[in-house]
Amino acid sequence: MFYWILPHQYRWVALLAANVIFYASFEARFLLLILLLTIVSYFCALGLERKGKGAGALFAVPILLIVLSLAVFKYTGFALNSVQKILDCFAIPFTAPVIRLLQPVGVSFFSFQMIGYLADVYRGKTRACRHFGKYAVFVSFFATITSGPIERAGHFLPQLEEKRDFQYEDAACGATLLLIGLFKKIVIADVVAKYVDNVYNNLHGSGGASVLAATLLFAL
Questions:
Q1: Which of the ends of the chain has fewer CB neighbours closer than 10 A, N or C?
Q2: What is the pTM of this model?
């Protein structure tokens, strides 16, 4: 409701505040990571649009930084375990160090959104956003940062500029979709998950019919 009370030109502030509060509720310190990558990609995109000398570097550097952060936080443990398994096949002694990195929430989604944005600007498919605050809203949008979909700047950013009025029908439709989603999650998925977990955690003691049923319910 606070969003609709604000004048149109300041509504992005409400969305950005919601993004920050939502993300901070998981792990506030990773806001610094998003902020750093947002600043780098924002200014590099402005430089890319000029198509001057060094455009290739302005495209490559932020993408390398984004991919590096994604690799460090999401794939370090996987990579080390894979190396250990490969070396074990050749009887080469190696003990992978135990590295437990807390993974930033939605790191894949905001990383690929930034990469897609930079690629679109580089190819001339979309203009670089001049408003840092609105670009930050695009990068960290709370409704998609944890589960997607990966949004394109050319689709999202124009919606921040479009003046909208509150529509009861839209609000009722949105509330209905939320309630249906909660029903699917709490009444169906959480109940089914108990049975699936019991079977999968005891595969040797479960019959074929139970495993088949658990597999079908897992898909549900």
A1: N
A2: 0.76
